[in-house]
């Protein structure tokens, strides 16, 4: 038995076919709320940080990194306690990138330490400054033991037009591989030992 083609008579009844509980008015209200929510989300979305791993002499094929390689952004505000420290984590993607989507806004400007953790390679750490609305204002290379006020090599600084509104929406920087991890150190042979 064939069913008759669907007609639009249900619009006159303000009720969807095969539904006794969902009226057309409720459906229109739901669509209005969804579209308003997406507009609010798109205007309130914060900046995203993309860290790319380019090929280099030390790491010619970034796609060969182990799958547990990840990047972390850790807040370094001295006014916060250990329980309030914020740690954001991004896994390695197939395109050899780490994506921190929508950095969270805060009550004041935040500084983060970007650290890439890998089993086989050592990466340079970065300082990432984020404005209170979640926009990235600057990225600098740093090193362990460096005072936080001393900024290293500049990787990104928001332009004057972008700095007025807090920074750019999406920022992409290249990670720098410092070297390969060596778990075993080869020592010179003992001079006093002689083979027979």
UniProtKB/TrEMBL annotation:
The keyword Membrane applies. It is found in: Membrane. InterPro entries: Beta_sandwich_EMC7, EMC7. The keyword NADP does not apply. Keywords: Membrane, Signal, Transmembrane, Transmembrane helix. Residues 61-190 form the ER membrane protein complex subunit 7 beta-sandwich domain. It comes from the Eukaryota. GO terms for cellular component: EMC complex. It is a single-pass membrane protein. PANTHER family: ER MEMBRANE PROTEIN COMPLEX SUBUNIT 7. This is ER membrane protein complex subunit 7 beta-sandwich domain-containing protein.
